[in-house]
Amino acid sequence: MTTVAVIEDDLPTSNQLAGWIKAARPDVRIDQWFTRDEAEAALARERYDVVVLDIELGHERNAGVALINAINKRRQGTPVLVVSAMPAAIYRSIMKALDAWDYLQKTTFEEADFIETFLDILRVAKASQAQAPVAAASELALDPLWQRTPTWRGARINLPLTAQRILATLYQRAGEVVSYDELFDVVKSGRNRDNVRKHVSTIRDAFREVDPAFDGIENIPMRGFRWVKAAPRVGFDKLSPNGKK
């Protein structure tokens, strides 16, 4: 059964969100939590398909941030939809950096907007879960539609969006040299070789945080970069997700 957690301290708002979800997907089981403590306890014992949460719970202004961090530490890929009164212009980028899947500002959206966003997230989450064994076998798992956090041999790779686009381009053309000019197409600003090299360095560093032996990106002098088959894992299974023994 599909399970969803609604974490919202205001009872009418919580009931409204739960009601909208139930109307759209009657088969979904919805757990409603109203405090950070009870939400943390539930997230520790239950693997939800989607979590809908507010940033501010009770007197804790950033309780939702702590909950997102707790979800991320579990490395289950649980998507989070943030619904908050905090201004979207400020908090949307913050939530994206925390790997939340989307952000809706209260009083600025209708039921149809919420349902459309929720169902999109649920569909992608279900598809990702179904593909998880295949992704693990192929070592690098990318989501080119959403460009959310990629995984390398099951470990999350934390990359900014531009670096994710460069990584996707290199991986999709594995074995081929991707020129600087071609990589400029996926860099939104700073379209020069130095900037591309910095992004590639960021990608390598992120991979090496989880796999110190990573050498899957080859520098082709004066031309560009190429994704090559990385070296076999050496003691990787003995490493924790942050790359430390």
Offer a quick outline of the entry.
This protein is of the alpha/beta class and about 240 residues long.
Instruction: Average the pLDDT over all residues and give the rounded result.
Output: 83
Number of domain units: 2
The biggest beta sheet reads: 5 strands, parallel
State the helical fraction.
40-55%
* Strand arrangement in the largest pleated sheet: 2-1-3-4-5
Instruction: Find the count of extended strands (DSSP E, 2+ residues).
Output: 11
Name the CATH architecture of the largest domain: 3-Layer(aba) Sandwich
- How much of the residues is beta strand, in percent? 15-25%
Query: What is the CATH superfamily label of the largest domain?
Result: Response regulator
Contiguous uncertain segments of 5+ residues: 132-137, 231-245
Query: Which term fits the overall shape?
Result: elongated
Domain Response regulatory: 3-121
Pfam families: Response_reg, Trans_reg_C
Modified residues (4-aspartylphosphate): 54
Keywords: DNA-binding, Phosphoprotein, Transcription, Transcription regulation, Two-component regulatory system
